[in-house]
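In response to reviewer comment 3 from the previous cycle, which asked for concrete evidence that the modeling workflow produces usable outputs, we include below a single protein chain processed end to end. The sequence was submitted unchanged, and the resulting structure tokens are shown without manual editing.
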Amino acid sequence: QPGQQLSLTPIVLPTAQLGAAYKPRRLVIGGVAPYSFAITNGSRPEGLDFTPDGALGGKAIGPVRSHTFTVQITDSSTPPLSVRQAYALRVVQPAPPRPAASTAAPH
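The workflow returned the following structure tokens.
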């Protein structure tokens, strides 16, 4: 389609907590869904994946570190549009639970 464009959102993604649900973040702007994704460099955190509607989500299962990866996204238009971008995403340990405040009165 003439004038159709495909682009990706900014490079730094919100931090993911190990074992917690990662709210889907839409990465793709424009183009025609469904989209296909290919990691061309680096690796995304295990447990997170791309959806056909252009989002990254799931549950990070590790490892705990900063992940950098380059993704190439291709849409379903004819001819297909393709764009590539590098991303950074950090996986962290969840914060330890805070101790419950004591409600007992001192003696």
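The radius of gyration is 19 Å. We consider this sufficient to address the reviewer's concern, and the full set will be provided in the supplementary archive.
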